[in-house]
Design a protein that fits this description.
InterPro entries: DNA-bd_HTH_TetR-type_CS, Homeodomain-like_sf, HTH-type_TetR-like_transc_reg, HTH_TetR. This protein is mostly helical and 224 residues long. It has 9 helices and no strands. The N and C termini lie far apart (75 Å).
Length: 224
């Protein structure tokens, strides 16, 4: 009996050990990744807030680390330079529209914009978007620098200009107008003011501009 009881306890211990091992294996990496994501978000939001309050040039990595209560090397582990903070949001949404285009290259221009806008509304980090906008308003000179950096990091998006030559002034006016409408949309999302009605109205405006100027995907150069 004692031997049977020992074997039973041993078997139960083995089962418990397997369960614990499985829990660590399945949950451990997930917990670590979530912890890293939260820390990264904290550092990013801290930096954007400091840039908005004190200026991009005056804020240092040490300042960001102090307010976020992490080591400076932790900050640079996630964001190697200050420039990486200001390109984070525009780069992430640009990567998303590129991904949507690559998933279905046959999408018409307006359908792509509509799908992209809905995706942004459903998934955007509103706090990050609002902080990015506040940072951009407080540091207007940084906006052009961020746009240039994003363009360099995501070259060759594969978006054609759909019949409008880059040197065509009328086409250039159309692309600028579409970027302006897109800027209003992004502002509405960042400020939490975007509604279904406004979404549809802005989409109709883009359709009218695209139809009259014969421009398409290449118009979607992002603005902060």
């Amino acid at each position: 009996m004692a031997s049977a009881a020992c074997r039973l306890r041993h078997a139960q211990a083995v089962i418990n050990g397997v369960r614990e091992s499985a829990t660590v294996t399945s949950d451990g990496p997930g917990l670590r990744e979530r912890s890293k994501a939260r820390r990264r978000r904290l550092i990013l939001h801290t930096a954007l807030r400091l840039f908005a309050e004190h200026g991009y040039e005056r804020t240092t990595i040490a300042d960001i680390a102090e307010v976020a209560e992490v080591a400076p090397r932790t900050v640079t582990g996630y964001f190697p330079s200050k420039l990486d903070f200001i390109t984070e949001w525009p780069a992430s949404i640009e990567r998303r529209i590129i991904a949507l285009h690559q998933e279905d290259p046959t999408l018409e221009f307006i359908d792509l914009v509509d799908r992209w806008w809905h995706d942004l509304r459903d998934n955007v980090d509103r706090e990050e978007a609002a902080l990015t906008r506040a940072m951009a308003l407080a540091n207007p000179g940084v906006v052009a620098m961020a746009e240039a950096e994003v363009s360099q990091r995501t070259p060759g998006t594969g978006f054609p200009f759909d019949g409008a030559d880059r040197d065509d002034l009328f086409g250039a006016a159309g692309r600028a107008a579409i970027r302006g409408v897109n800027h209003v949309f992004l502002r509405g999302v960042a400020e939490g003011r975007m509604t279904d009605e406004l979404h549809d109205d802005l989409l109709r405006l883009i359709r009218a501009i695209a139809d009259s100027t014969n421009v398409g995907h290449g118009s979607l150069k992002l603005d902060l």
